Amino acid sequence: xxxxxxxxxxxxxxxxxxxxxxxxxxxxxxxxxxxxxxxxxxxxxxxxxxxxxxxxxxxxxxxxxxxxxxxxxxxxxxxxxxxxxxxxxxxxxxxxxxxxxxxxxxxxxxxxxxxxxxxxxxxxxxxxxxxxxxxxxxxxxxxxxxxxxxxxxxxxxxxxxxxxxxxxxxxxxxxxxxxxxxxxxxxxxxxxxxxxxxxxxxxxxxxxxx
Length: 210
What we know:
Shape: globular
Radius of gyration: 17 Å
Structural class: mainly alpha
């Protein structure tokens, strides 16, 4: 979705994991998983001693991958997000916030993206408020060492307001099979992010360090 020029600093383990999860969600929501990603997902192992929403979501995703094939996922993705005219779900912030596309939330998002130094790539057709694009931005904000305050402001303004509802809808979508598990992971991760930001001390939030 975007280009950004910045040297990537060394990340702490928590931030590396957060960036990886955002990137994974972005990949699966941008298009159906290819064979290599599907194979990787099949090998996922969660901590058997940990009974948390994230652990359950990872287990569900691995199980869903084991029962999926690339051709099946292409059909599922198309029905969910593309369809004839439109898919079952509309993965855009404007749709969830206003009921229409290309509304004021997109204009506000574009202003913030410009301030942050992001620009839309020419080969991307979807508006910048697509859930995959927003996850990509969050992953890059983390990887390029933007402070927690910057991350939190972007997440709070452009993701928190609607993403949990989207991932809930994805879990219950009629045509979702594999993507039910993607919705489960996305919902659990959004809740984890919410709790994580709440637990940050003011000094950590301003300085970008834990």
